[in-house]
Each structure stands twice: as structure tokens, then as C-alpha cells.
TrEMBL record:
Job of this protein: Putative oxidoreductase.
Source domain of life: Eukaryota
Entry keywords, A to Z: Membrane, Oxidoreductase, Transmembrane, Transmembrane helix
Single annotated GO MF: oxidoreductase activity
Name by which UniProt lists this protein: Rhodanese domain-containing protein
One Gene Ontology cellular component annotation held by this UniProt entry: membrane
Alphabetical list of PROSITE patterns matching this protein: ADH_SHORT, RHODANESE_3
Domain Rhodanese per the UniProt entry, residue ranges: 76-135
Keyword Membrane in annotation: yes
Family as reported in the entry's similarity comment: Belongs to the short-chain dehydrogenases/reductases (SDR) family.
Keyword Transmembrane helix (UniProt): yes
Signal peptide: none
Record field: transmembrane: 12-34
């Protein structure tokens, strides 16, 4: 009850503040166009008045539009209006937690006081991570726990051991390399089982245990918005993932779902991708090596959870621009991706037999 009352008070002051600011900006704009001397009740040089009148629209109008957007966005109901989410003492379930981004998320969340439950196939690694967490952050009295979990084998899931969830992080995944024509149906199905069906199963299994002000996080990819050549199975599975969680969000008024569309992260993920025959490629992409560190990404994601973001493109400017082109100039994007594809090591002319 206290949380609800605090939320309504904060909501009222937020709306009142932005409405007042909008009115002030509108008044300033009107007064500048009418007579600046009336506004300030003192004499200003004509050149100064003319300069202000010339630049007032360029300054006041964008600010007014931004304030109006923030105000209207606050009025619209949804999870984005829930109070900020403090992860301290929150129960956080992380899939794919034994390495890479999942491991970094475990450290970042535990550092901020969360109670983490780590899921992955490598229980030896999970045990080591839990011990390291306790040694590194002794002030957090929450005991980190772990369970064996294969996302493609839901029958072995430890859901009975998890009575409550505040934050669910769907993080496990796989990647592929090779043309759409060369990739076997078995690889397409494997990508969908891991990157789509697995996360759907996890989410459906724990949805009823999620706290009312909780959060579901999906570590997707920019390729869930913009498919790039020779990554067909991966891109298709990430597009499906985006669509499913968009739909789930739309079915609930205040369910906080954060889809993170990540760019390149330097975790070795690309080297674990499989080729059209199902073999691990064993070679890291050069773009992947230049990506964000997993520790940096973990901080950004936890901050996005705290700030109640719902769709977060965590990538460099070129990737964000590609997402923009996807909707506003798709023909240019398609040709740009074609040019990119001709330079890809998996393009027919570049493949090494």
C-alpha cells in the first residue's frame, strides 16, 4: 500500500512539474515574439532582441516538444511509469550465467545487493562463480545459488526450487554462420530451440512467480531488428524473440519487459557459432573483438532495469543508425547490407575450402 501511495504522489509531482515547465516555455516563446522589453521590463539593444527572436524557435520549440513528449509519456499507463527498480535483495534468475554476459550480470547484480540464482549447463563453473561472488562482495548477505539447466531440455528445469522471482534474465543463446541456402534445417531448428522456444518456456514457467513490480529481461540482439547476411538462423530466432516479448508486454498493462538489442560484445560468442554443417567455427569475428566489454554491458543493462526501460538498443552508432534505416529507408539499408555481405568471410567468393 505504501509503495502504491508513493507511486501516485511521485506521478502527480512529475506531471505537475513537466506541465509547469511546458507552460513556462510557451510563455517565454510568446513574450519573445511580442516584446522582450515587456518581459524583462528593461531596455535591450534591438540587435539583441532580433537575435533572440531569430533563435527562440530553434531553442524553445524543441524543448517544448521534448517536455510535451515526457508529459504525455507519463500520462500513458504502462510499466514505464512504475517506480524505479532497486535490485537490492531482489531475487534474480539468470540463464546462461556460466560465462560472458550472464556471468558479468551476476557480478553486477550481486555487487548491488541482489540475490542471484544462476542457471547453466556447466555447474562446475557456476559453483566457482558463486564462491567468487561471496569472496568479492562479502557485504551482500544473500546466498548465491545455482542449478543445472539446459535451455533445450525443459524437463530438467529446477522451477520447483524457485518459489519467487523479482527479475528474470533470459540470456542463454547460440549463433550461426553461413548462407541461408547452405544452412541445414537442423541448424535452423536448433537456433529456434535455443534462442526462441527455450526462452518462451522459461518465461511461461516463471511468469506466475514474478512479483507485481518485477521485470523480465531479454538479452536479444540488434539482429532481432536488422538481419545481416550469413547469420540467417540467428537473426530469424532473434526476430521471433522480439515479437514474442512485444506481444507478451502488450497483453499486460504493467508488466515490465526489457528487450536489450545488443550489438557486438567481446565475449568470444562468435567463436562458438556453428557453421552450416553444425561444426563450431572456432574463430572470433573481428567486429566482435571491437565490441563492448561484458562488464560494461552488464552495468548498462542493470541501469536500464532500474530506469524501467522497455526497448534498449545497446550498440554503437552505426548499428543504431541501421535500425533507423530499417523503417525509414529500407532500400538503402538492404543495399548496404548486401555490400557488407560481399566482404563477409562466409560469402561464397570468400569461403576457404
Amino acid at each position: 500500500m505504501y509503495l502504491v501511495r508513493s507511486y501516485h504522489v511521485a506521478h502527480f509531482f512529475f506531471v505537475a512539474y513537466h506541465f509547469s515547465l511546458l507552460m513556462v516555455l510557451f510563455a517565454i516563446y510568446c513574450l519573445l515574439f511580442c516584446n522582450i522589453n515587456v518581459f524583462f521590463r528593461m531596455s535591450f539593444p534591438e540587435k539583441f532582441q532580433d537575435l533572440l527572436k531569430e533563435w527562440a524557435p530553434a531553442l524553445v520549440i524543441p524543448l517544448s516538444l521534448y517536455v510535451a513528449y515526457k508529459l504525455l509519456n507519463r500520462i500513458i499507463p504502462g510499466a514505464h511509469n512504475l517506480p524505479k527498480l532497486d535490485v537490492k535483495n531482489k531475487v534474480v534468475v539468470i540463464t546462461g550465467a556460466s560465462s560472458g554476459l550472464g556471468k558479468s550480470l551476476a557480478f553486477e547484480l550481486y555487487k548491488r545487493g541482489a540475490q542471484v540464482i544462476l542457471l547453466a549447463r556447466s555447474t562446475d563453473k557456476l559453483k566457482e562463480i558463486c564462491e567468487e561472488l561471496k569472496e568479492t562482495f562479502p557485504l551482500n548477505q544473500n546466498e548465491p545459488t545455482y542449478y543445472y539447466f539446459d535451455i533445450t531440455d525443459p524437463e530438467q528445469a529446477p522451477w520447483a526450487e524457485i518459489p519467487r522471482v523479482d527479475i528474470l534474465i533470459n540470456n542463454a543463446g547460440m549463433a550461426n554462420r553461413g548462407s541461408c541456402a547452405d544452412t541445414s534445417m537442423a541448424i535452423h531448428r536448433q537456433a529456434m530451440e535455443t534462442n526462441y522456444f527455450g526462452h518462451v518456456h522459461v518465461t511461461n514457467s516463471l511468469l506466475s512467480k514474478l512479483s507485481p513490480d518485477g521485470c523480465i529481461v531479454v538479452t536479444s540482439s540488434v539482429q532481432g531488428k536488422v538481419a545481416i547476411p550469413y547469420r540467417g538462423s540467428y537473426g530469424a530466432s532473434k526476430h521471433a524473440l522480439q515479437a514474442y516479448f512485444d506481444c507478451l508486454r502488450a497483453e499486460h498493462k504493467n508488466l515490465h519487459i526489457l528487450v536489450v538489442s545488443a550489438g557486438y560484445i567481446n565475449t568470444g560468442f562468435g567463436s562458438r557459432a556453428i557453421d552450416p554443417s553444425g561444426k563450431v567455427v572456432g574463430v572470433e569475428d573481428e567486429n566482435q573483438k571491437k565490441g563492448y566489454t561484458p562488464e560494461h554491458c552488464a552495468r548498462l543493462i542493470v541501469n536500464a532495469i532500474r530506469d524501467r526501460k522497455t526497448d534498449y538498443v545497446m550498440a554503437h552508432a552505426d548499428a543504431r543508425f541501421a535500425v533507423f534505416l530499417r523503417y525509414f529507408w529500407p532500400t538503402l539499408l538492404n543495399y548496404s547490407l548486401y555490400i557488407r555481405g560481399t566482404k563477409d568471410q562466409w560469402a561464397p567468393k570468400n569461403k576457404k575450402e
